[in-house]
Each structure stands twice: as structure tokens, then as C-alpha cells.
Amino acid sequence: ADLLLAELWGLGYFGSINFFYLPIDFRRGQPVGYAFANFVAPEDAWDFLHQTNGSFLARFQGQEPLEVQPARLQGLEANIDHFRNSVVMASSIKPEHQPMLILPSTGERVAFPEPTQPGAHSLRKKTSLWKARSLAVCK
């Protein structure tokens, strides 16, 4: 997640992203092939879509071109509300494999809010509903 986020920042989007998540296939220990980024300003999301859709990332040679599209969840609050009660926030999941909140001015990670549902982080089998190679753009 850190390498991909650094790549996005290197493309000129440092300070533009306040939420980032690179889902992991825990059986293989590898990313599932897509990520979610929430941009602070809609214009940054639009610029990102036009700059990167169909392109390749320098640090990820041999990968398929990016397919950038709007995500189902839109906005920082919607992402927080969804993921704060998700099993991926369980204490047994490494922090680098969890969704991250980012302070745009510094790039620092910010603590995720506590879950609102009791037992929300209990580990249970989940299936990925979407297996696409895309970087979803939120906002």
C-alpha cells in the first residue's frame, strides 16, 4: 500500500488523498488487483482519472494498465462508515493491510475511528464481490 500511495503522490497527488485502501488476498498475501482512493477535491479525482486511466505505474512493471473508475462508496465519511465496522480493521490484521486515513497536509496516517457496531471486527469468512484490476476513484 505504501509503495502504491507513494507512486500516486509522485504523480502530483500529495495532499489530495485523505483515504486509501489496497485490499489484500490474505491466502496469497498479495493485493487483489484494485485499490480505493478518496480525493479531497472532486477536481483532483477528475484530473487523476484523466491522467492515469489506461496508463502504467512505474513501480509496478509488468502489470496491466490502470482502469480508473468511480467507486461504489463516495466521499470520506461513506468510506469511514463502511470500513470502521469491517473485519479488515481487526487487531489481527497488519496496519499496512488496513484502510488508512491520511492527513493531506502532511501525508501522515490518522487513527481510524472506533467501530459503531459491537463485535464488528470479529473475524469471519468474507468473499470478495468484485475482482477487477482497477483503481477506483472516490469523490
Summarize the structure in words.
It is a single chain. The protein is α/β, with parallel strands linked by helices and 139 residues long. Helices cover 22% and strands 20% of the residues. The chain has three helices and eight strands. It has helices at residues 2-13, 42-52, 76-83; strands at residues 17-21, 24-25, 30-31, 35-39, 68-70, 100-103, 108-110, 135-138. The strands form two sheets. The chain has a six-stranded mixed β-sheet, with helices on both faces. A two-stranded antiparallel ribbon has the order 2-3. β2 and β3 form a beta hairpin. Residues 123-135 have low confidence and may be disordered.
What's a quick, concise take on this entry?
The protein is of the alpha/beta class and 139 residues long. It has helices spanning 2-13, 42-52, 76-83; strands spanning 17-21, 24-25, 30-31, 35-39, 68-70, 100-103, 108-110, 135-138.
Could you give the count of β-strands? 8
Characterize the largest beta sheet: strand count, sense, and whether it forms a barrel.
6 strands, mixed
Structural class: alpha/beta
The oligomerization state is single chain
User: Which ranges are low-confidence, i.e. pLDDT below 50, for 5 or more consecutive residues?
Assistant: 123-135
Count, helices: 3
Question: If you average the pLDDT, what whole number results?
Answer: 82
- Provide the succession of SSEs: HEEEEHEHEEE
State Rg. 15 Å
Strand order of the largest sheet: 5-8-4-1-6-7
Helix content: 10-25%
Q: What distance lies between the first and last C-alpha atoms, to the nearest angstrom?
A: 20 Å
Q: In percent, how much strand structure appears in the residues?
A: 15-25%
Shape descriptor reads: globular
